[in-house]
Amino acid sequence: MDSPVRSSIPVLSLLFVLLVTLAAACPCPALPQSPQSGTTASSLATLKSRAEAGDAGAQLKLAADSLRSNPAPDYGSAIKWLRASAAQGNTQAQFLLGYLYQNGEGTERDYAKAAESYQAAAARGYAPAANNLAFLYHRGLGVPKNPAKAFELYQFAAQAGDFAVQCNLGSMYYYGSGTPRDYALAAKWFRAAAEQGDPRAQHNLGFLYFKGLGVPSDYKESAHWERLAAEQGEPHAQTDLAYLYESGRGVPLDYVAAYAWYSRAVASGDNTGAERRKSLSGILTRRQLDAANALVAAGSSEMPRRHKQPTTAALALLEALR
Asked: Cα dist. 256→259, 281, 292, 302, 308 in Å?
């Protein structure tokens, strides 16, 4: 049977991870409406006094508090203080302002203004802004489409150690976008992100080991990385781990485990292994099917507790402002 193992290495589109202030697993999540940070009335008055006197840090803190307002973010106040802080060169304010412009949060979506804000922060060495600016250059949003410039920005930003940027850079090398294709360097950057716990990078690295691209072909190593990603709920990795069990590559031949992982993948939204799962259902005994379904049920309840999502540098931004 042909192998279904294939790369879910992000196509160069929305699957590139944007470093946003409150989420990193999705490209463009909305800002959650979390509670305010417990600022007291007296401390708030002091903060406003400092902000009105031109303290860029206080202006940023007031903006962050406004974004956490209940029952909904106070975007008017947030944007006012972000603009004031950004005008003084505060890179975090410039980054947050760029995010709001890019996603149309509290203002009209404006990619050109987003790029301008990201550029200001990136020029001062702020890696998350460089990552998001790279995304805009790669897509030609608010700036001329320029994969070479996008690659340059990803390369700079990846040095800061953020797993999301490292995975993006690995994808640029994998596809040869803005730079010559280099599977070995793709593997290097996927590994850097995978070792920090990023399930996308773990799956991508597992794929490279399966195909022997940039690394020696090694089914056992492929299974190792696919399992790490699959146990975090990455659906393509779940399908691929199922195939490895079905074919006995890198893991013992185990149709029960294969059926269970195919089932998890389908439940997670990847239907590419649905036919293989159906074929296995005609091979397994009733007792084996019951055992496989028990594994699926157990995995559904255990995986969220066993694995903690990694944290990007950008993800911690608002938390640091509490």
From this structure: 5, 9, 5, 18, 27
Provide CB contacts within 8 A for 283, sequence distance 6+: 255
Cβ-contact 206, 224 below 8 angstroms = yes
Instruction: Calculate the CA 202 to chain-centre distance.
Output: 12
Rounded distance, CA 9 to CA 23, Å? 20
Extract long-range pairs of 220-224: CB within 8 Å, 24+ residues apart.
Answer: 220/250, 220/251, 221/250, 222/5, 222/249, 222/250, 223/249, 223/250, 223/251, 224/250
Q: Does domain 9-198+312-322 have CATH number 3.40.50.920?
A: no
CA distance 195 to 199: 10
pLDDT, tens digit, for every residue of 41-84? 778 899 999 999 999 999 999 999 998 888 889 999 999 999 99
CB atoms within 10 A of CB 148: 12
pLDDT tens-digit profile of 191-212? 999 999 999 999 999 999 999 9
pTM value is 0.80
Backbone φ and ψ for 233, nearest 5 degrees, come out as 95, 10
